[in-house]
Fold this sequence. Notes:
- The protein has 430 residues and is mainly beta.
- Helix content is 14%, strand content 38%.
Amino acid sequence: MSKYLTLNPNNVPASGRVSFARGNPILTFTVGRQMADLDMSTLRVSGGLDIWRTSAGAAGGLRPTAGAASELMASQKLGVYGVVDQLVFRHAETKQVAEHIRHYQRFMSSYLPIMAGSQDQIGHLSKSALIMPNYTAFQTGVIRNTATSDFAIPLPSGMTLGGEKLPLDQFPLEIEVHLSPDSQFFYSSDGQTVNIADCFYELSGLQLTCEVMPKESSGPASGAFSFNSITSYFSTLESTNSIINYNLGLSKVLAAFTNFIPSSFVNNLSQDGALTYMPSKTNGDLAPIDSISFLRNGERFPYAFEVDTNFREDSDTVVVDSQMMKSFLGSIVPESVHKRTSIGPVNSNRNYRVDGTVETGYRNIPDGGASYGVGVLYDMLDSEGVDFKNAQFSMQMTTQLDDGNPVSAYLFIKSKVTVAYAAGGIEIIM
């Protein structure tokens, strides 16, 4: 018979209210050692989100009004997930890290649109995660809300999505949540920041809930469990011929995907730093990808050929190349388990500008906004993967990025990780 645990964060001030702006950038929760197995899929963080404005020297407690309320915005496709910058799972006693997802906001910017349809955004996600299907709904329902917006969200990651039960008698768990800066969470609806520069978000009533299965005695003195871990990397593209190289040191790589954003948009209140745009130029024009190759130790793999896009064939083509999009979707969630998505021709095309102030700008794209990326699936069965322990991973692209505009590329690697435990401690095998 299972039971449910409700846990408070370890490091919350007496007020119970935390925010990046007030000097509380990291939250920790501990599921202590006990004779039970933890169902990782049941982990939920709940609480309330408030949006405040510090004005005229006040200590806070003022809601955005007038110009601030109309200009202030945050990512409608991320909702409250936009406040999470990093997510860490570690052994609560030895502090050994099992999974550390940096740029978690960027990961979720690709994961959520692929895993949830427009009806999900209208329905349960709007209540649980404050995710909305469009710009207007989010500003009305969250930004201009004069009361606390309640939420209760799972924490998608390798450890929580793998279906494994965590033996708490061997692996007591500590969960660490790093909060995003306000300048990354918010952005301006019209590119102006004067009225919103002092706005900040605040979390309250935070709790972690989960389900555990008690057991009468400890399991074997030694054992192991596996899960699909997410590892993140960061690069910058600045030319028409770009190559990303990494020595991953991972022996069972299942998939890899990358999303993009102009580097100047990161931590910039005037622009949405959460969307996943196509590479773009300084003037806001898109810089589409002509071709892409994935390589292992310098050899094309798993495709033995360079993938040419439909843009190379016809630069007037607006619809994104179907092969590229299919590969991208499969790299995040294998096609065999893919049920629904909100990504379609209207939010994955090339018919927009990376300029929020014009009618054809990214802010006016429906169904959650621009959703684009590239990826490759190495193992359709999510089983053994490909060995990159001593082999270099590379991604080579030719693009229309001919003006040197820096574009940030966030690479996410999904790989199988094994945690082995014994009387002497634990070992995390990448």
